[in-house]
Amino acid sequence: MTHILRFRPRIKYQHQDTSILTGKKIDGLEVAKSVKERVKKAVDELKKQGVEPCLATILVGDNQASATYVKNKHKACAEVGILTKDHKPSASISQDEMNDLIDSLNNDRAVHGILVQLPLPEHLDEFTTTSRIFPIKDVDGLTPHNVGLLSMGKAVLKACTPSGIMEMFDYYDIDLSGKNVVIINRSNLIGKPLYHMLLEKNATVITCHSKTKNLKEICQSADIVISAVGDRSKFVLTPEMIKKDAIVIDVAISHHDGKLVGDADYEKIIEKASYVTPVPGGVGPMTVAMLLKNTITAASLSKGLGH
Ligand code: GUN
């Protein structure tokens, strides 16, 4: 029954005339829309077979940014017909209570995907919490089981943001084989899973972080720079740091001078790069789209329909 999850070949993106522009925008909203359309069809298929895909979210405390992200995830689920269960424990929830909540969702047959929004308050351990989720319901791809599978090229449920970036490369027909890719991030949510996904596509990958020396020179050697720092006071990706016609994927999002910005100075970078993702409207919508995709994958797995 793998057909439920097998996305149809897409209509290729109509590339802009490169003689006019130096760089081209990678339109995350457009790619996300195409993923959502395919997810919606898969949801309809699952419903015909008596499966009502359902995502449970856990948002601890009152972090405003996290609350907005979770709200967007719920909205996107509603758009494609995925049910949601909204859990909002107070910031004082203990680790034991958190474990119990996850256990109850693990054992709830009506719930197919479980997402614990990060970051968590300091007294809760991120590893303990996320590893508690059954791997088959782990729509964030954060459990040791799914991380291990990813490192072996066998994962089914993979981290959403890196999966979204890979989907963008695919949509824009960007061949990764033999490309030098520099990732500026080493987190469990972005840098580490992305490393494995790129390696699987035969890219040569370098992971950089706050202690990396000669970051500028390393970036200048890259065909593709994927930047996820998210603090403009510490880091800005400037045109001098990339080679001509490099591809820039800007994963960061932060407030700067009253605007939402990424790590790169989009207007300047696009003059030199061949492709750039904008902020907002780049990687962000892809994270949500891939969460929907993971949720239908989890729903299919739960019924023995997938893979
Ligand atoms: N916080 C920021 N990004 C993410 C994500 O992709 N998943 C979860 N669970 N929390 C996040």
Number of helices: 10
**Proportion of helical residues:** 25-40%
Shape: globular
β-sheet strand percentage: 5-15%
Bound molecules: guanine
Number of domains: 2
Helix/strand structural class: alpha/beta
- Radius of gyration from the alpha-carbon trace, in angstroms: 19 Å
Oligomer: single chain
CATH topology of the largest domain: Rossmann fold
User: Gap between N and C termini, in Å?
Assistant: 8 Å
CATH superfamily of the largest domain: NAD(P)-binding Rossmann-like Domain
Return the string of H and E elements: EHEHEHEHHHEHEHEEEEHEH
Name a few traits of the molecule:
three-stranded parallel sheet, 307 residues, globular, 11 strands, binds guanine, alpha/beta, Rossmann fold, 10 helices, single chain, six-stranded parallel sheet
